[in-house]
Design goal:
This protein is an alpha+beta fold and 123 residues long. Helices cover 36% and strands 29% of the residues.
Length: 123
């Protein structure tokens, strides 16, 4: 169980994500994103910055949790969604994590070759 306030940040080279997609295709997307996220990203002119930002969000959350992508936290433990105004938020899918959605704050950005995510975890 996580208690207190923690922060995590991650930056991803979008070119690396693009290469993984070119090499593994749909298998790569389905490994790291939910169906809802894939659908959201496909609506973009270039979906790779959005894919990379969601990848970075998971990494940032795992760092805030202190676990990394392992130890009970997997790519499919959470989903990055957007509210009606477009603001991203993290939806916890794996309730075994013991983290309420409301305790996670998320900021995403991408520009040029990079996507970044910052997570504040306040439990």
């Amino acid at each position: 169980m996580i208690t207190g306030r923690e922060i995590g940040v991650d930056i991803v080279d979008i070119r690396r994500i693009r290469k993984s997609y070119e090499k593994y295709g749909e298998k790569f997307l389905r490994r790291v994103l939910t169906e809802n996220e894939i659908s959201y990203c496909r609506r973009k002119k270039d979906m790779m910055p959005s894919v990379a930002a969601r990848f970075a969000a998971r990494e940032a959350l795992s760092k805030a949790m202190g676990s990394g992508i392992s130890g009970g936290f997997s790519w499919k433990s959470v989903e990055i969604a957007n509210n009606k105004h477009g603001k991203p938020f993290i939806r916890v899918l794996d309730k075994n994590l013991g983290i309420p959605d409301s305790s996670i704050k998320l900021s995403l950005s991408h520009d040029g070759d990079y996507a970044v995510a910052v997570v504040l975890l306040d439990c």
